[in-house]
Amino acid sequence: MDIEKMYQRQDVRQLVHALTLLEGEADVEAFLADLCTPREICDFAQRLQVARLLDEGEPYVEVQTQTGASSTTVSRVSKALNGVHGGYRKMLIKLEDGA
Hints:
Helices cover about 75% and strands about 0% of the residues. It has helices at about 5, 10-20, 25-35, 40-55, 60-65, 70-80, 85-95. Helix 4 (about 40-55) runs antiparallel to helix 5 (about 60-65) and helix 4 (about 40-55) crosses helix 6 (about 70-80).
């Protein structure tokens, strides 16, 4: 399924909307704990760390060493970081701005 079709699904729309309703870190932590396994949460965190390091210009091998991510994960994150959706880039800017 391509990403545009995925976002047309009602259940996915509801999830996206639910995320916008979260207020503060405690709400996010509670929702993530219910929605994801601990491993999934750690995987998300690792991908964000990979994106940050790539954005800072770190080489792939160094990113793998620092994060423990596979070469496939680093490559996938790099593609998304430089891709059309811009989600990682927007989040990194918000994090840098202290949001």
